[in-house]
TrEMBL record:
It is an enzyme of class 2 (transferase). Belongs to the methyltransferase superfamily. L-isoaspartyl/D-aspartyl protein methyltransferase family. Its EC number is 2.1.1.77. It comes from the Eukaryota. Keywords: Cytoplasm, Methyltransferase, S-adenosyl-L-methionine, Transferase. It comes from Podospora appendiculata. It holds the Pfam family PCMT. This is protein-L-isoaspartate(D-aspartate) O-methyltransferase.
Length: 239
């Protein structure tokens, strides 16, 4: 899949993702078109492939970002019952996906927190986002925020109102050994988590994306979506 959507411009890349049905919702397409991947990927930004960004991290391939946003979409968009969606992007790395998510949560109190455990990468995400006027506005208004912490424990970000906590959508950008209970506890009812989890059975280092849903009554269901290869969620390097 890596070569199929590559292009020489941002618009070309997004058009190819659309043509290849990796992006199927016009609102998702519009959001991706607003974010120039060149602000986030250090080399060949319009290739449909991951790129190293330092500190053993990579910016994921565009088709993976597309699949993640498409999957989480019902929990990211503002609705009448959820005017201010709260989204947590764990392992925000380059900050690219954090920016795309911020395009979708809306201006009525929608919030995206990019969480990193490496200070330099937390700063990199904010620095990359500040390269565009819209990105700077997201940072200034607090619609997008970059925080430092261990993603396996989730994150608590106080909101404006009473009971304004938890997350409508959690994206995990590095592979987990399990669906961490603290993340599940922070998921709202209803809410959805998109998380790569190491396979339990295989001898090789397989991983699959799991879609974990919590319904209105708090009932949790898990669906295994497709095989992937992500860098792992780890302890922060010392020093
Ligand atoms: N979504 C990012 C992916 C970056 S790669 C992007 O596309 O740019 C995965 C990221 O997870 C790395 O930046 C790494 O530093 C971060 N990470 C790894 N373990 C973590 C942990 N325990 N807590 C928070 N972030 C973690």
């Amino acid at each position: 899949m890596a070569w199929r959507s590559s292009a020489s411009t941002n618009a070309g890349l997004i058009e190819n993702l659309w043509r290849n049905k990796l992006i199927t919702d016009p609102r998702v397409k519009e959001a991706f078109l607003k974010v120039d991947r060149a602000h986030y990927a250090p080399t060949s930004p319009y290739d449909d492939s991951p790129k190293p960004i330092g500190h053993r991290a990579t910016i994921s391939a565009p088709h993976m970002h597309a699949l993640a946003v498409e999957n989480l979409l019902p929990f990211i968009l503002p609705t009448t019952s959820r005017s201010a969606p709260r989204v947590l992007d764990i392992g925000s790395g380059s900050g690219y996906l954090t920016h795309v998510l911020a395009e979708l949560v809306g201006s009525e109190g929608g919030l995206v927190v990019g969480l990193e455990h490496i200070p330099e990468l937390r700063d990199l995400g904010a620095r990359n986002m500040a390269k565009s006027e819209e990105g700077r506005r997201f940072l200034e208004t607090g619609r997008a925020r970059f925080r430092l912490g261990d993603g396996r424990r989730g994150w608590t970000e106080p909101g404006e109102g009473e009971g304004d906590d938890g997350w409508d959508a959690i994206h995990v950008g590095a592979s987990a050994v399990e669906v961490h209970p603290e993340l599940l506890a922070q998921l709202r009812s209803p809410g959805r988590m998109f998380i790569p989890v190491d396979d339990e059975d295989g001898h090789d280092e397989g991983q699959h994306i799991w879609c974990v849903d919590k319904d209105e009554a708090g009932k949790v269901t898990r669906r295994k979506l497709f095989g992937v290869r992500y860098v792992p969620l780890t302890d922060a390097p010392v020093g």
